[in-house]
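Components:
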Amino acid sequence: MSAAAAETLIEAGRPERHYWKEAWRLRELLLFLSWRDIVVRYRHTAIGVAWAVIKPLLTVTIFTVIFGWVARLPSEGESPYALMVLAGLLPWLFFASMVNDAGNSLLNNERIVTRTYFPRILVPGSAIAVCLVDFLVSWVVLAGAFAWYGVAPDARVLALPAFVLLAVLVGTGPALLLSALNVRFRDVRFVVPFVIQIGLYVSPVGFSSALVPEPWRLIYSLNPMAGVIDGFRWSLLGGNSQLYWPSLALSVAISLAFLWAGLRYFRATERHIADVI
Amino acid sequence: MTTAIRTENLSKQYLIRHEAQRRNDTLREAIASWARSLRTGSAAPGSDTEEAFWALKDINLEIKVGERVGIIGRNGAGKSTLLKLLSRVTEPTTGRIRVRGRVASLLEAGTGFHPELTGRENIYLNGAVLGMSRAELHRKFDEIVAFAEIERFLDTPVKRYSSGMYMRLGFAVAAHLEPEVLVVDEVLAVGDLRFQQKCVGKMQDVGREGRTVLFVSHSMRAIYALCDRAVLLADGKVKSDGEVPSVVAEYLDQGANNVLERNWPDLRSAPGNEHFRLAGARVALEDGGAAEAITVKTPLRVEFEFWIGADELLYSMGLHLKVNTGEYAFVTASTRTLLRRGWHRGTCHIPADLLNNRTYSVDMHFLKDGRNALLRLPELLAFEVHEGERGPGEPLGEYPGTVRPRLQWDVAPVPAEAARLGAAHA
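Structure:
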């Protein structure tokens, strides 16, 4: 036994100074928790990994039929309508799953949380990682669609990782906020799916945000997902798809504000989780 | 010796909310009451309906490196709260704890096990949850598997494990942590006797390696076997602290450890499974008197009410009677009977003049086909047997032993020539 073993002081209301250091030290736990969810999901559902592909495929088909053919909404630039929808739908589904899954993550891991200690941020963190994996798998659909229409993204596709990062950023704040709120208020989990449902139509998934009249465009961009979706279309569809910078800047600013609020509320709630869950 | 754990005025308060005026458990209520408070300018919502309850109050303990401390006390005395504070699951209300080194807590065997994952996968998952690194787990993997005795089922999902296997695996992972401080809640309650002994042995090794162990148990036998110091908690305070025998004696003297009756009115949440549900169990006097008045002279019965959910089931049950030091007084089992779906009552009759004036606890095994456990419930009931009135000519004084059977004795005069034992002198 080393006499130099570090001493830990446990005290009420004491901010753990080593919180992030500890979270980093336990990063393997984050991987294990993510790995568990992925293994369980894909082993247990009969269609397995295909689910991450089927969901966007069905949604994009419905959008294309209803909005593209029936309502005849225009696409962005010269790209096929379905391709435009897909480029917006995938990041939107990613966002929705982050908010939903990470939002429920503390409740879903109740047993672990009430019986062991580790920085709780790892729980929603691992849920977000799982969503990211699903998201990347769903790109198979995108690749398939590109092949189907015989088009390919140009060099702008190199900017895509930055927009993926932005999507994670946009989703993390609300996810943290909701995961902590869920512990305290049990009706939150019933509200979230409804909000996500509405968000799908409010966000520029079925149409191009360029359709929004100019005076309203900035206000429309208060939805941080508008910036993310615009970014995805810009880097994937190429051609004359335009990047609307104010929207992107707003998206970054709002997601950072959400992240700050989410982290603060999460850290404040975290210490009482085991008592109220 | 250096101090491993020091608590200073450690207290934990819980707020009990009265059911009629509950806290704002839904967002809607929270917003409504917030809006109300804006209008009336009153204080925090709901605070007037809350009642403070101190689960722990001013605990001052100093535990040296390498000590193995048993925490004992009745249910609700604060044992589990203390462990939760030490393992940082929850935060103290006031006071502080200083802990030297890494703390690993085993508050439940198999924390974080996922039923769909195999034994192999769960070892990694559970180990990570308990704070082990992947490298550490790789190194100890074989040892863990061997300890848990699950080699053959390593690649079977744990949902197919028996409760014993599940428990063994859970304990095995935790036992191979190498923390400076190991905190263990009552996890030995399940599993067979042989494995329990193995666990106690493992924890003794941990202690010998100079690690500090904090151990909560209702089994005084385990406390005796494992600990070199005991702390008795009562109503959130330290009632006594010192050598194991004296603290255990004080605990047993509290007397009020009796659990004479247990009921599960809601059958769905009653212990058991779809084939068998235990609805109630009680200790009663054969003549119907108050069970508090059990003496060595009163015949008893132990009754169980249960529901058989299977169409047909070859049923039997075993009663394991233990004294509170953990030693067995005896084990008795019913004969196997074919039971059909419906309600049943099983009764074990314990005659007068069998038990000693000690505190007994009842472990029950409910069995199918005479060997498969439908349900095992350790410490299901507990009762104290008081000294009875001694009959004329009965010996005085204390009787050692877990039982005190009254056997037939004959003492009578015999003619000298018939006294064969004295024949050599004749």
